[in-house]
Write a structure and sequence with these properties.
Radius of gyration: 23 Å
Number of strands: 2
Structural class: mainly alpha
Strand order of the largest sheet: 1-2
Shape: globular
Strand content: under 5%
Largest sheet: 2 strands, parallel
Helix content: 55-70%
Length: 365
């Protein structure tokens, strides 16, 4: 909850006091809020610089994975931080006035995280080039100069490059930022995920736990074949207590396994109480249940789809991709129970997932 509050607090500056003149550049709001949430959260927790870096890098792993997964299934036009095929002034005319907002009516865009995460990584990249303290001064100047204004990205970059002219000698210019980040579909080439895991004790703890659960599942798989062998219990796991972000990473690692024993999944919930965790944890837990068809725990999925409607959109897709009658029925049952309460964009996308574009009998009108 604290990190989500930090994100919304960030919007007091980035989104309210300063807004994007053209909403195709909403990364100026959401990317900044995602970047600043780590700094605000660290201040609230009174972490040292080392602690802040470890926690921020842990979240960066989760963000990187989320961005990669999204880019893998998204058309290239929606992968950029600005509309494709326009010059470096964005979608505004030469006099700086906005002439159109591309993709503004695209319902899929409302459920994408590109402007959040790619924007975050761009700001992180700019900070890494000059150092955190120096970049904080750029942010301060940006907020002071453009207080209560609507801005375009080049106004931020002008302050940045005027403050650090030596970057041009290194081949880093406003033009390369546009071409390599804002106008570039796919994963930015300057982004190296290895920097997030290097010497990170939080990540190392997750890796140790992951190996433990691999061993537990291997034993439980053998116990299924040989009834005489006793399955692992929660008292025998000797698992370390994990913070929510660590638990999210552990669940993501487990999602990469081709098979998992249902008894292992039950034990996982006994140890970490993932079925009652935060929304990010419960989403990954439900993905595990769908992937391994643990139908005895499908009430967890039903509860999630009803209680977290916006976050559940992708989960409807997982149920439909399974191409099983039971999973399709669950998706339809949950949709029908909340259809009238759903946001229009959520309703439209989920309805298309279940019935197809021109089918279906339910309306949220």
């Amino acid at each position: 909850m604290c990190i989500r509050l930090a994100h919304e607090i960030s919007h007091s500056w980035f989104g309210l006091i300063i807004g994007a003149r053209d909403w195709t550049e909403e990364w100026l709001s959401e990317g900044f809020a995602t970047y600043m949430e780590d700094l605000i959260h660290a201040e609230a927790k009174q972490w040292s610089t080392e602690e802040q870096n470890e926690h921020s890098n842990l979240r960066s792993i989760l963000r990187y994975r989320a961005l990669k997964a999204e880019l893998d299934i998204t058309e290239s036009e929606l992968q950029t931080l600005r509309p494709s095929g326009v010059d470096t002034k964005g979608s505004e005319s030469l006099d700086g006035k906005v002439t159109f907002v591309k993709n503004g009516m695209n319902h899929e865009k409302g459920f994408m995280q590109v402007h959040y995460i790619k924007g975050y990584f761009l700001l992180r990249h700019l900070a890494n080039l000059v150092g955190q303290k120096n970049f904080n001064q750029v942010i301060k100047t940006y907020v002071t100069k453009h207080h209560c204004q609507q801005v375009l990205s080049q106004e931020l970059f002008k302050i940045y490059f005027d403050s650090f002219p030596h970057l041009r000698e290194q081949g880093v210019t406003m033009e390369t930022i546009y071409s390599d980040w804002l106008d570039y579909p796919g994963m930015p080439q300057d982004l190296n995920p290895n920097e997030f895991t290097h010497n990170n004790s939080l990540v190392e703890e997750v890796n140790v736990e992951f190996q433990k659960w691999l061993a537990i599942d291997k034993k439980n798989q053998k116990s299924k074949k040989s009834p005489r062998k006793k399955m692992k219990t929660s008292d025998e796991t000797d698992s370390k207590e994990l913070i929510p972000d660590q638990l999210s990473l552990l669940l993501e690692n487990l999602l990469e396994l081709d098979t998992m024993c249902k008894s292992t999944l039950n034990l996982l919930d006994e140890v970490y109480h993932v079925s009652s965790g935060n929304a990010d944890i419960r989403h990954r837990w439900c993905e595990l249940l769908v992937k391994h068809q643990h139908r005895g725990r499908y009430n967890d999925i039903k509860d999630f789809l009803i209680e977290d409607q916006a976050m559940g959109v992708y989960l409807y897709g997982e149920l439909m991709v399974a191409e099983k009658t039971r999973e399709r029925k669950l998706a339809e049952e949950c949709f029908l129970s909340v259809a009238k309460e759903m946001d229009f964009g959520c309703h439209k996308i989920v309805k298309e997932m279940i019935y197809g574009e021109d089918e279906g009998t339910t309306s949220n009108q």
